[in-house]
Amino acid sequence: MPIYEYRCNQCNKEFSELLLNQKESHKVRCRYCQSRDLTKLVSSFSLHQTEGSRLASFDTSKPRGDEYYKDSRNIGLWAKKRMKELGVDLGSKMDEIVEKGRTGKILDEYNK
Ligand SMILES: [Zn+2]
User: Fold this and answer.
1) The whole model's pTM is what?
2) Which has fewest Cβ within 10 Å: 17, 51, 61, 79?
3) CA of 85 to the centre of ligand 1 (A)
C-alpha cells in the first residue's frame, strides 16, 4: 500500500499520507494547517512501484487536461513513457527533467 510524503508550502511541515487509491491524492491536506498547497516528496521505494504501474497503464495517445496535471506526479510521466516508446533512454538526464517538472520549475519557464 503506497505511502506518500508531502511537505506543506504554508507551514513547511512534512507528513506522510497513506492513500488507498489515486483519487485520494486530490483530497490530501496538510495535517497541521489544512493547506492544500503541498509539495510531494520523492522518497520511499513505494514511489517507484507506483510510477511503474502508472507508466504501464499510461496511454500517450490521449490528450491530458488541466485537471490531470494538477497532480504533479503526472508531470513528466508522458514524456518519460514517450521516450521509452521511441527507444530513447536519457537515463538520469530524463529523471532530472521530470523532477524539474514535478517541482514546478518547468511550468515556470513555460509560462514566461
Ligand atoms: Zn501546513
Assistant:
1) 0.38
2) 61
3) 39
